[in-house]
Structure formats: structure tokens, C-alpha cells
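User: quick one - fold this with magnesium ion bound?
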Amino acid sequence: MVGTTTARSRAREAFSVVNSGQDLCPSSAPASNAGSECGGMEFTREDVDALLSEKPKSKNKFNYKERCENMQEYIKRLRLCIKWFQELEDSFLQEQDRLRNTLNYVQQRLDELEVSSKNKEEELSSIIVELRKNLASAQEKLTKEQADKLAAVDSLAKEREGRLNSERLQASFSEDLAKAQQELSSANQRILSINDMYKRLQEYNTSLQQYNCKLQSDLSTASESLKKSETDKATFVEELSALRGHHNSLKEQFASVKVSQDEAMKQKEVLSNEVVCLRGDLQQVRDERDRHRVQAEALTAEVDKYKEFTGKSCSELDHLTLKSNELEAKCLCQSEQIRTLQDKLIVAESRLEVSDLSALETRAESEEQKKLLSELQTRLADAEFKLIEGDKLRKKLHNTILELKGNIRVFCRVRPLLPDESSSEAKVISYPTSMEALGRGIDLAQNGQKYSFMFDKVFMPDSPQEDVFVEISQLVQSALDGYKVCIFAYGQTGSGKTYTMMGRPGHVDEKGLIPRSLEQIFQTKQSLQSQGWKYELQVSMLEIYNESIRDLLPSNRSSIDSTRTENGSAKQYAIKHDANGNTHVSDLTVVDVRSTREVSYLLNHAAHSRSVGKTQMNEHSSRSHFVFTLRISGVNESTEQQVQGVLNLIDLAGSERLSKSGSTGDRLKETQAINKSLSSLSDVIFALAKKEEHVPFRNSKLTYLLQPCLGGDSKTLMFVNLSPDPSSAGESLCSLRFAARVNACEIGVPRRQTSTRSLDSRLSYG
Ligand code: ADP
Ligand code: MG
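Assistant: Sure. C-alpha cells for the protein plus magnesium ion:
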């Protein structure tokens, strides 16, 4: 409590004033005229640090007036500073909006472009594919045609060769024929000449026969004349005898006749010889004629044969010519086809080139757009980073203000409607949208009346766990800096206390504040190692049911009965506070933890022990307080600093008003215990706020356990959980009223527990 007197003496505006409907907060003036208040001043981080670390200059400790004035002056400067940061934040937000809009616009355009280019590309590629297909088929056709053509050319060449052969054959045949015809004609001529000769010979023969006949007739006349002459001789002889006298003359006559007769005989012999000779000649001529005839006949037959042969080859030649003509025509036609196909191919190739070019163009365009997009994205990231930094600074400043105010902070969280709750009924909870109350105000309608409240923060039903954690992360951080931190979850059963603290089991996205806080602490612990900080973390978990403590962690001395100590005596769980404000609970299991894995194992164990208790002890999870405690001790070897922080996360018992009437036995005892502990919690808080001499910490186990964490040294935050169900409106109103009163409490300025006097460079605003 040392060092809090100055803080307590300060005049502060409590949230209760705000809640009662009066706006006393000058800092909520619109940003437009706030600029003049700041007077164009600018604050750097160093300024802020200097401002925050400023000490009161008053020389006289008891000159309250002067100190008060100094404080007011200080607060005024702080306000100016905050105003300036708020303006900065506004401008950041505007800038971000603008950037986001341009980015959206560009992205939209880019998307459109991308879509169109993709379409175009697809179209082109389909055309290309089609063209390629056409080309392939055309080429196939072409090759087929070419093969056909080659075959045709081959066959044509063969035909030509055949034709040439046949022509040659024909020529040789014609030659033969001509020769044969020549021979024939010569033979004919010879036949003619032979015939002529034959005729002449026949004529000669006939003339010879005539001559022969004449000769024979001459011979016969000669014989007759001979006979006559013989008769004449006889007559002559007679006459001779008779004319012997004329002998001489007659003798002479006779001799002359005899000479003529001899001459005739001689002539006859020559003629006979000549006939025989002629007969032989005739026979010869006849023989020759016969031979010639035979020869002529043979030649005619040969001619006939040649004639027949030539006819045949002629027809063959005709046939071949026809066929070759046909083939030539076909070849021509195929060449024509090939030419057209080649033309087509050229056209297709040119189209392909054109489409390739356009595809390249679109690609280049899209790349340009992508570049632009990435540029914009980096700019946006920059802006976002700046915004986040600004936001962080704002939060720190806000926290500092709150600390300076000394209030117990209150966050309100409304859970969503559960599937089995009807959403048809009129909404009882609404959220004001005015600048001032945005994110901080909550209105509740009951029996036709509207009740308005303002807290440090109001989380709407759709706020995820992550967003809730971000708001308390600074507070968690300050536990590492040596503060005592207490976070309560208050509300009726079913309003989301356990959900807020632990999360939904088995859903990593819906982890609660406890696991998230530990993750952050382990992370920061890691990063602070480079500055020479070494931390030891110890965890304990307990629940307070019917004013008695139950350990939720497995005892490291594995005793069989968890309710008994090693020596058999019942565990006492006696609470003791030492002079440094450190709390010890005897027999309570305290576990050193080094990783989030270990902590999640312990949390699972605790949840299990609590749920086991639930079945045994009639749903007592809603009738018991769950206290998670993390003790943090850090040593900086280089600066020889030491810090001792505590983080308490408490899931309180259901706050619903339980009627004592009708409750008997265990139930009555439970009801009394809860009423007692919750009312002593509020009694303690209000006594602290009123700065009463006696604070009734000892009235309940809970308040006594948390005594060092509830005093002015600590940082306290309360979540008030609400159910949106209309049937819970009454309880919600009670919770809100209680929370508003708590929020109005000033319990003092928190203090770090460090053991060196040197000023720590690490400032915590949590
Ligand atoms: P309490 O611990 O206050 O009795 P619980 O945390 O058990 O209430 O919540 C009651 C029910 O509402 C649980 O089923 C829980 O999962 C659900 N619930 C509470 N808060 C939320 C939230 N913010 N989002 C979604 N479900 C929630
Ligand atoms: Mg619960």
C-alpha cells in the first residue's frame, strides 16, 4: 500500500458518473476541435516515456494544494498527449480505409482483368488446340496424300516403264511386222513372178506342145510322105525294072529322096530330143512352182500370225495408255488437294502466331498488374504495421491512464444465443453506436425500461476469443514485469465464464484466456532471454467449494488419498501471506512449468478433476470458484534485477441469486457459501474503494487468498459475462449493476515488485 496515498488523494472521474448518464469526460470532444487543443504539438515515443516517468516536483510533501495543482497540470498534459494520439489514430484509420479502398478497387480490377485474361487465354488455347488438331489432321492427311501420291507416282513410273516396254515391244513388233510384210510383199512378188513364170512356162509348154503336135503332124506327114515315097519307090522300082532303061535317072532320083529322108529323120531326132529337154524343163518349172506355192502359203500363215499378234499388243497398249491417263488425272487432283491443304496449314500457322502474341501480351499485362498489386499490398502492410504500432501505443497510453485513475477495470462480454435458445423474442441487449459509447456501452431493456451502462470495453456476442485476449494481453504482459494481476470472470451460471477463461475443450480456435496467456508468457519469456532475463514459472490450480479449498493438480508426492498428507493427517490448505505480499497455501501442489504443453496437460487435469467433482458433488462447478495462479520470478543476470509477478485467473461461482427459502441441507450450505464469498468479494472491493481502515479480507477464503492481489498494488480486471437470453434479463441487470459499481472503484495505483532501485528500461503499461 506504500506509495498509493498520492494516487488516492487525486480527484478522479469515476465510471459511475458516466453510467448515471452524465458526460463529464472532456476527452470525448470531437476530433475536429481537438486539434486546436493540442496546439499543433507533436509527441514522440521519448516524449511519452518522459511524460510517463515524470515524478512530482513538489518540494513540500504536505503541500497538498501544490501537489494537486502539479497533478492536474500533469493530467492536462497527459490528456493533450492522448488527444494527439487519438487524432493520430483517426488519421491512421482514415489512411487505412483509403488504402484499403484503393486496394480493393485495384484487386477488383485485377481480378476482373485476371478473369478476362484467363477467359481469353482459355479461348485462345482452345482455338490453338483446335488449330493444332486441324493441323495434325491436315498433316496426317497430307502425309497420307503424299504417300498415295508417291505410290501413284511409283505406279505411274511403273506404268510408264511398262508402256515404254510395250511401246518398245510394239516397235519391235511393228518392225517385225514391217519386215514380215516386206517379206510377204517380196514373197508375193516372187509368187507373182513365179506365177508369171509359171504362166509363161505354161504358155511355153503349150507352145511347145503345139510345136510338138505340129512336129508330130509333120512327122506323120513325113511318115506318110515316106510311105508315099516308098510306094513311089516301089512304083519306081517297078518302073525301074520297067524302066531299067531309065535306071540311071531313077537311081539318081532315089539317092536324092534318100538324102531328104535322112535329113527328115535327123530333124525328127533333134526335135524329139528338144521335146524331151523341154519336158524336163517343164517338170523343173512345175516343181519350182509348187515349192514357191508352199513358201507363199507359209509366209501368208506367218503374216496372219503377225497380224493377230500386233492386234493383241495394240489393245494392250490402248488399255495401258488409258490407265496411265487415269493415274495422271488422279495425281493432278491429289496435287491440287495437297496445295489447298498447304494453304490451309499456312493460314492456321499464322493464326496460331497471332494468338501466341496476344497470349504473351495478356500475360505481360497480368504480370504488371500483379506487380502493382504486390506494391499496393506492401504499402497496405506498411500502413497496417504503422496502424498496429499506433494502436499498441494507444493501448499502452490508455492503460496508463486507467492505472493512473486507479480503477478496477471491467470488461463486459455477451455470449451468443445458444442453439436451443429462442431468438424470436425481442432483444433485451443492445449496443449504442454513438462515437463515445461505441465498443464501451451496453443497453439492457427490462420491463419496458432501458438501462444504460458503460465499461472499459464491451465484447459483443460475435467477438472471438482472440479479440478478447488482445485486450488483456498487456495486462498479462505486466505480470512478467513484476505486477500482481487478477482477472475475474463474474456472471450467472451459463453466461460464458468458463468459456472465457478456459475456452471450448477440443477447439483450438476457441482457447480461453488461460491457455492464451500462458502461450504469450512463454513467448515473451523466450524473447526476453536475449536481454538477459531468466524466468521461473510455477502453476497451481484450486477450487473453493463451500468455503474449503480443493487442489486440482496431481500431488507430486503420490499419496493415495489426495485429501491426506504424507503423515496421514487431513490436508489443511492453510493460507499465509508473507511480508513481501507472497501467498502460500500449505499442502497445495505447485508445479514448475517450462512449456505450454505442460500447462495444457495440467489444465486438462484440472478440468477433469473439476468435472469429476461435478458428478460427485451435484454440478458444483457452477457453485465453486476456480483459481488458476501463475507465479513468475525473473532474474536479469546482467542488471541484477529481480521481479516477482503473479497472474491470477479466476472463474467465479455462478452469481445468480439463490433463494434461501426452499433450500435445505447441502444446497442451503452451498447457497450460503456462494452468497458469502461473492458478497465478501464486493465488500472487500468497496472497502478498498472507500479506503476504509478495515478491509474484510478474512470474511471468505476467496478474498483472503487473493488479498495481496486485490490491494492497491495489483492490477485487477473483471469480466462480467452476460447471457442474451430474455429469461436472463433480471440476472443480467444485477450483474451489470454490480459491475458498474466495481468499475467505479478506485483501489489505487498498481506497483511492480522489483528488488533493485535502478530504473528498469522495460516500461510496462499493462
Ligand atoms: P458458465 O461457466 O458461466 O456457467 P459456460 O462458459 O459454461 O458458462 O457457457 C455456457 C454455454 O455457452 C457453453 O456451452 C459455452 O460453450 C457457451 N458459450 C459461452 N460463451 C460463448 C461464446 N462467447 N461463444 C460461443 N459459445 C459460448
Ligand atoms: Mg462455468
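One thing worth noting: The radius of gyration is 72 Å.
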